[in-house]
Fukutin (Panagrellus redivivus), 449 residues
Amino acid sequence: MANYNGYIGRTKRLFPSFLKYAGVILITILFCHHYYSNRQVTVTYSASRNASNTFPRHWKSLLQYPSTLKLVFIDEPSLNCLIGTVPIEAEQGCQQLYSAHTTRVGTYLSIEEFQKLFYEKIVKGQDGGKKTDKWSTNATIPEQNPDTTIIQYWYHENFEKSIIVSTLKKNDNLNYYKLRGARQLQSHAIRHFDDSKISLASLLDDGQCENDCNAFVPMQIKRHMAYLKAGSLMECNRETALKIPKDATWRLPNVTVPITTHLLDQYIEAGQIPFMCHGTILGWYRDCNIIPHTHDFDFCIHAHQFIPDFHKQFAKDPLHPVWRSIGRREYGFELTFYLNHGIKDHEQAKLDIFYVYEHNSTHLWTPLLMNFQKGTRVQDFLPIVDKLCTADLRGQLFLAPCNVREYLNVRYGSTWEVLNKNAGYFEKGVEYVYDGNWETDISEVLEYF
Ligand SMILES: *[C@@H]1O[C@H](CO)[C@@H](O)[C@H](O)[C@H]1NC(C)=O
Ligand SMILES: *[C@@H]1O[C@H](CO)[C@@H](O)[C@H](O)[C@H]1NC(C)=O
Ligand SMILES: *[C@@H]1O[C@H](CO)[C@@H](O)[C@H](O)[C@H]1NC(C)=O
Ligand SMILES: *[C@@H]1O[C@H](CO)[C@@H](O)[C@H](O)[C@H]1NC(C)=O
């Protein structure tokens, strides 16, 4: 929310001594990230079932050359089929590779390199006979600097399947890849990941696989799947974003964005899926940025995903310590974290996580403690958020409600498009209702760490 100062400004900062270490720690994290991104670990996943008949012919044909083609398993069906631990999900992942017209695989090669090697290894040696399957290559997209090619496989029984090959070339200004869709397969944005090698030997008949038979799979598999489950990468409103004054200065420094990512990743890995809400999504959509005058980020998590005490592991975290919690898991739980940016003489940055509770068939609510002495509560309403999409905030990928305009209309009324420099605690037009008081000693529902 825009500004807490009126309410909690009198509370002293915590952990000041961490500030001077934050820079060092951040550098360490960036270094470690670099180190981990470049290492390769071979993980042995044991197939829990007879894997030899799980992949369809067109996949098996490609999977004979996993190292030459530098193949990376990145899509849900193929990952479920390969390493799914829930039997029914694994079976259905495999079945989807059979039944879908188009499926997807990643490669660390460029599209030009992939096409050349694919031709040499597979297409060139194809039997010209009538009764044999055949590969053909399709156009690459886009024409300049292609990142995608579609390869097509004719089954001699006379039907066709396609595989979208997406090149995984990192753009250092972003923490994600954009994957192009085709046919029934939608476009996706997925986070960069560390990888591990996986041996495909047990999937393929003896001697069919070249070299070490290793392909790659993402290590942060839960996070990866969470982003795959989300809808497409949304665009912010470039028109309203032009209205930000040219001389605007931001209270939240850039480095708070990767610190936010670092914290939220741990929530995602645990199955608590945070999405941008309140002022953060207003800023993302309206300004294509953080709102200049805001000094905190707002994220929401569906309350049914709440894990008791999960936040307590961050009590002494040097980068993003949890500062306090309000409420109960049953009702009105919210958290505030500090984001230790390590910039001298710059004000504290914070991040709020609001748990989202069900209100009625059309609306959800998030809590807010309005008056700390009296324990006065209010509820903010949001529309039902049942589908998450992805959104880029300063080069970092986050999840956000797909129904973003509906969200903003409900949350901020129709005036949300107007940048309000003087906004304090409440952005203009915000809808909330009083929700009584905590009828207990406030210290029972308010915890500082
Ligand atoms: C796997 O299935 C194939 C064909 O259905 C069979 O020949 C083979 O013995 C099976 N292997 C195992 C380990 O069950
Ligand atoms: C390439 O693939 C697309 C999508 O599957 C299809 O519409 C198009 O006809 C194909 N082009 C060729 C030359 O096969
Ligand atoms: C749900 O609650 C909201 C907020 O109180 C209200 O505006 C809306 O009309 C309610 N919807 C239904 C179907 O009752
Ligand atoms: C923050 O990042 C933006 C781009 O996202 C850049 O234009 C700006 O110069 C950066 N600010 C600082 C102080 O580095």
About this structure: The chain has eleven helices and 21 strands. Residues 1-42, 44-53 have pLDDT under 50 and may be disordered. Residues 50, 52-53 surround 2-acetamido-2-deoxy-beta-D-glucopyranose (ligand 1) (CB under 6 Å).
